[in-house]
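Reading is simple: each integer encodes one residue's backbone shape. The lines below illustrate:
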Amino acid sequence: MENKDLMKTYIIRIYRHNIADSRFIVGTVEKVGVHGKMAFSNRDELWEIMNSSSIKPEKHDNQKNRSPAIKSVIQEISTKQKGGKQ
């Protein structure tokens, strides 16, 4: 009996979290060795991504399916990169 997935390695980037409510956490997950990443907007989504069999690439051009939290983080990062203030 061979188990190919004894250890999985991920890169998790957390862009925003709420200390008072640990359910609120926003970021991205990449599985090492797999092209693409997935966004999450709460700990349940993070758990589902990490327990799925594969990570599908994030679609950068399909913003209508993103949660409001992800859209907010993207807007905040974009504003900071442009040197503007909120």
Observations:
- The radius of gyration is 15 Å.
- Confidence is low (pLDDT under 50) at residues 57-62.
- The helical segments are 43-51, 68-81.
